[in-house]
Amino acid sequence: MTSPIHPSPRLLRRAPMLALALLVGVLAGCTSDPDPGEVVLVSHDSFQISDELVAEFEDETGLTLTVRPGGDAVEALNQAILTVDNPQGDVFFGVDDATLSRALDADLFEPHEAEGLDRVPAELRLDDEHRVTPIDHGPVCVNYDAEWFESEGLEVPTSLDDLTDPAYEGLFVTQNPASSTPGLKFLTATIAEYGEDGWLDYWAALRDNGVEVTDGWTDAYYSWFSGPSSEGDRPLVNSYGTSPPFEVPDEDPLPEQGPTGTIESTCTRQIEFAGVLANAENPDGGGELIDFLLSDEFQAEIPLSMFVFPAVDTVELPELFDRYATSPSDPYQLDPELIEAEREEWIREWTDVVLR
Amino acid sequence: MDRRGAALNGSPRLRTRAPRLGTAASLSLAAVPAAFLAIFFVVPVASIVTMGLRPGGRWELGVVADVLGDPALRGVVWFTLWQAVVSTVLTLVVALPVAYALARFEFRGRRLLQAAIMVPFVLPTVVVATAFLALLGPGGPVSGPVGNLFGSAPMDLRASLAAIFIAHVFFNVSVVVRVVGGLLEQLDPHLEDAAASLGAGRVRSAIEVLWPLARSAVMSAAGIVFLFTFTSFGVVLLLGGPRYSTLEVEIHRQTALLLNLPVAAVLALIQLAIVATLLAFGARRQQGAAVQQPLTAPSGAARPPEAVSHRLFLAASLTVLAVLLGSPLAMLVSRSLRTPDGWSARWYDMLFDPDASVLGVAGIEAVRNSLLFAVIATAVAITVGGLASVVVARGRGAVSRAFDVVLLLPLGVSAVTVGFGFLISLDSPPLDFRDSRLLVPMAQALVAVPFVVRVILPVLLSIDQRLREAAAALGASPARVWREVDLPLVGRALGVAAGFAFAISLGEFGATIFLARADMPTVPVAIVRLLGRPGAASIGQAMALSTILMVLTTASLLAISRLRPRSVGS
After folding, report:
1. Does residue A2 have a pLDDT over 50?
2. Is the preceding peptide bond at B145 cis, omega within 30 degrees of 0?
3. How many CA atoms lie within 13 A of A267 on its CB side?
4. Using omega within 30 degrees of 0 as the cis cutoff, is the peptide bond preceding B430 cis?
5. Which of residues 303-332 of B touch A (CB under 8 A)?
6. What does the pLDDT average to over A83-90?
7. Distance in angstroms (rounded) separating the CA atoms of residues B17 and B292
8. Average pLDDT, chain B
9. Which of A87, A117, B275, B540 has the smallest number of CB atoms closer than 10 Å to its CB?
10. pLDDT of B193 strictly over 60
């Protein structure tokens, strides 16, 4: 009997040669010349684009689009920085305001002024030299489980201060800023609110009030939060302003209030950018792709595919988003260069106070 | 040839080694595994380490002293070591009786259970963590009784050392059961019968007869479990909470998040040095411990549990399995069927609908991708690992030991190091893999090869040399001896190894997430992407895919276990 597991003796004798041939074949098969008609988008794995939009882009430009994800957002950016001399593609999507200066310092991008940039609100455009183009923004806000607070007869907290109130002891879960983007965003919110002299005291109070810290968003949201799709018992979680729409039951008509909500005064905003990679094989194609990412077609798809708000604010939002998501009018903001310069030190101090 | 006759006449303690291979033969057999390891392991890892320690073309080794002098990092090394020792011991304590029970007692559903036991091994940590956190939380079914035991309120075992240990046992029981059980199934039960008829009790016969024979397999399994827990990443990260950090977690943090390559490189070298030292020690011990012994056809050793003590032992083992492995898995299955409107298969339906998916492709396509990659990875791993095992088993002392250690090293290096290494070293002709779909199965094979070797090598070392001599004396050529004697005996081990490789490929996440293309997600990659989204539909689909992954694993291992080798001499 010949099977993959018990090869015939003859096959087995030949196995070394066959394997060597296979290996050589693999190597040979992978050395293809760059295709001038291809544009490669390097991104983190939250990037989504529908087949229809890919087809539309390819029809319009005559280019073929390849998407290459590289882990989570920070990992993907660091991969791109490591491979800056010989990049994996033509466009990188997913650098955010907190990591922007790291990317610019590494000369990761070359300038491209995107078509339609004037439709993006000025506060989202952080680079005058157009090395990066804002594509979307997502608020990071404390979410609450409305049903829990109702059944306990407790008021929903309304500020960062409230989170240290003994009435809310042991109710809040957030993420480690060393390993999680929303965790880092929440840390910057506290620094923006309490200043560089006061934020550590705030965290000491938060710790004494029983804050739980997880490593990433997934375990905080699904394992500790008490919302309808979660298994946990804490009614307050650091998450996104766009999380509540996804907790709304699929009913007709839609309920007046969703089962979860956000505390708007705790929000920060994360802006995500794309840019043409320096040393790209197809920088022109890369420019066309950036233009496409800012087009109405792509921007309209962003909310339900990537769960964030489109950068072009004239695009019509889906009803779920319009009704239940929070786009904060006055979010906490820190200077990106300050974040890049101080981040490691802040995280070290934070670790000493909160985890040790 | 009568196997049993050979068994009863042979003294298992007699040691004669298989004939050494000539240098030329050794080299030609070693060429493929050596080339594979060089391209997919040595070059990438060396590149990333060099990049960290030689920024701008000059060696900067001051960072080594900085890292060694940092008490926090020394604490990480110490924690990594002792938690791995404790985890390994706990895993052996739980798993050895279960391995014995499953190998020796025939009962309904035994085959199914042997396949299903691999399920924890392939599930992405983030999925299992979801189940564990629910089980270990204050409202969960574990912490209440544990709290009562100590006369206190329900305990919260989330983000604790206990959670780390429980999860390590959960993930690794299958390693011990498969590796040790694989050998136990082939040990002739008449040896124990003989001991019993000579008046030895169960315990004494286990210590004096079974232990010497099974020792090398137990050490093999313990070695794998130790490596796994020593390099533990997801479990420590997700279940231990941010307070606990292993070397692997710290390397990931320094590389992927902080881009602090010098520190990451030093930590990677420390981890590699510790692993290499332990492996070198283990390889010496293992070769010393291997006893050539009469092996029977697989399953020849299992019999129905007749005595009351047998039944009790079997029942206890199955109960342990049901509680430890069954409860988290049942939790996942129940979540995959729970919807806001009650129980239904809605999340499964959504997997077939590309428009309902957040993955860009219908969720079910991930299943096809995973199967395809797993078949390729298994073929590569069996070829590379199989040839390498022959070289180690029949090569010359020090060289073969060194090769043995190198083969295991991929387990001691973090996925992030290998992944980043792939990126910066395999990016230009003739080794430009950036666009290759084969990169995923190659990375998966790299992870699987050490297991293939660990499973096949003890069997190769244990084959009674006199069987070969007898065959040769009857005029068989060396090739024929290999075909008629070695192959059938190794066949079972090849099956077990293929099962491991297949399961590992199905479940591999760390390297795959780096390399998988957006349009070809594997099941674990799809699950993790779904879990990165809020809402019941996302977690529901993630749980449905996890359940499918469990069924897939069990089914493929069942199928592989049915491919029996021919028995010796038939």
Report:
1. no
2. no
3. 24
4. yes
5. none
6. 87
7. 8
8. 79
9. A117
10. yes
Q: How far apart are CA B364 and CA B350, in angstroms?
A: 9
The residue whose two tokens read 């091994």 is B121
For residue B159, list chain A residues with Cβ-Cβ distance below 8 A. Answer: 212, 214
Q: What are phi and psi of A313, to 5 degrees?
A: -85, 5
Tell me what ipTM this predicted complex has. Answer: 0.74
Tell me the C-alpha distance between B469 and A208, whole Å: 74
User: Six-digit token pair at B210?
Assistant: 């079974």
Closest-CA residue in chain A for B245?
Answer: A215
Token pair in block for residue B312 = 């009790």
Structure tokens at A344: 């490691």
Helix axes B71-104, B62-69, angle to 10 degrees: 70
Cβ neighbours of residue B295 closer than 8 Å, sequence gap 6 or more: B186, B187, B188, B459, B462, B463, B464, B489
CB neighbourhood size of B310 (10 A): 16
A104-136 pLDDT, tens digit per residue, is 999 999 999 999 899 999 989 988 999 999 999
Note the pLDDT tens digit of each residue in B393-415: 877 667 777 777 788 888 788 77
Q: Do B536 and A246 touch (CB under 8 A)?
A: yes
Q: 3-class SS at B430?
A: coil
- Mapped onto helix, strand or coil, the DSSP state of residue A120 is coil
Residue closest to B97 by CA, chosen among B252, B244, B212, B214:
B214
What H or E segment, with its residue span, contains residue A141? strand A133-145
User: Chain A residues with CB inside 8 Å of B538's CB?
Assistant: 229, 246
B164: part of which helix (H) or strand (E)? helix B161-184
**Alpha carbon distances (Å) from B222 to A124, B91, B172, B282:** 55, 9, 10, 10
Signed CA dihedral, A183, A187, A193, A194: sign only? positive
Cross-strand pairs, A142: A238, A263
User: A257 pLDDT exceeds 50?
Assistant: yes
